[in-house]
Amino acid sequence: MRFVIVTGMSGAGKSSVLKMLEDAGYFCVDNLPIPLIPTFAGLTVKGSQNISKIALGIDIRSGQSLEEAGAVLDQLRAEGYTYEILFLECSTSVLVKRYKETRRTHPLSGTDRVDRGIEEERKRLAFLKSRADYILDTSQLLVRELKTQIDHVFVENGSYHNFFITILSFGFKHGIPTDSDLVFDVRFLKNPYYVPELKKLTGRDARVRNYVLESPMAPDFLDKLEEMLLFLIPGYIAEGKNQLVVSIGCTGGHHRSVTVAYELEKRLSKSEYGVKVEHRDIER
């Protein structure tokens, strides 16, 4: 029996996740009154031979009874129930944009500004986030990317990292990515653009990567960059961050930044954190 509790910020995608889990064969219930959760668990987890996967949605709509959730979850553990908590996180700016686009009212904003309601909700849900087995930030995820992650963890039973690093290559002439947390300029490395046989290729090609990595400073730079990131990440985690966007820039975003992004991904993929690489300007 797999028992998943889905919670998180309003507008972060909880309803979508529950639909995805339902499509994957989970028996899903949303916004069940908190005091009824132990009864629900008894009827489904231990009381039914036909249900093997359960997903229960909990959110700020529970009102004052949300404060009871901690005690109820402790009760479930004490009674021998095994459950996992998925917390859906999202940045305030993205949530505000989503509420404006859908013209919906945030559950806690009332006649006040939406961002104030969001921050109040973040405070009230902090205790659930601290208990979460999985924290998934949907700020930059497309629906298909969200489904891929949900399927990986809750359908394919794959491993999941609560801290995720996105390594993003870009070209300075197209502007710095607005969602960057850290930005590094690699325009000091050898530039394949000025080599006729390499000019039209990208850092996806081994010849370009070899040329860039032959730069005298490349090995030391990668060593120091890896060391610095692994030093900084525990500090970000301690401050409640669950993802980091590391942007690597060169002039056009085709050669040097792509090469360094690939090399950094190889190094960080050996760490305990989740890592993916994206190339914003490689097709421009």
Q: Write out the CATH superfamily name of the largest domain.
A: P-loop containing nucleotide triphosphate hydrolases
Helices and strands, in N-to-C order? Answer: EHEHEHEHHHEHEEHHEHE
Count every beta strand, where a strand is a DSSP E run of 2 or more residues: 9
Amount of helix: 25-40%
Write down the overall geometry: elongated
Helical segment tally?
10
Query: Which blocks of ≥5 consecutive residues have pLDDT under 50?
Result: none
Kindly report how far apart the N and C termini lie.
Answer: 49 Å
Strand content: 15-25%
Rg result: 22 Å
- Secondary-structure arrangement, i.e. CATH architecture of the largest domain: 3-Layer(aba) Sandwich
**Rounded average pLDDT:** 91
Main pleated-sheet profile: 5 strands, parallel
Give the C-level CATH assignment of the largest domain.
Answer: Alpha Beta
Secondary structure layout:
Elements: E1 2-8, H1 14-23, E2 27-30, H2 37-44, E3 53-57, H3 69-78, E4 84-89, H4 92-102, H5 114-124, H6 126-131, E5 134-137, H7 143-154, E6 164-171, E7 182-185, H8 206-213, H9 218-238, E8 243-250, H10 256-268, E9 274-279
Parallel strand pairs: 1-3, 1-4, 2-3, 4-5, 6-8, 6-9, 7-8
Helix pairs in contact: 1-7, 4-5, 8-10, 9-10
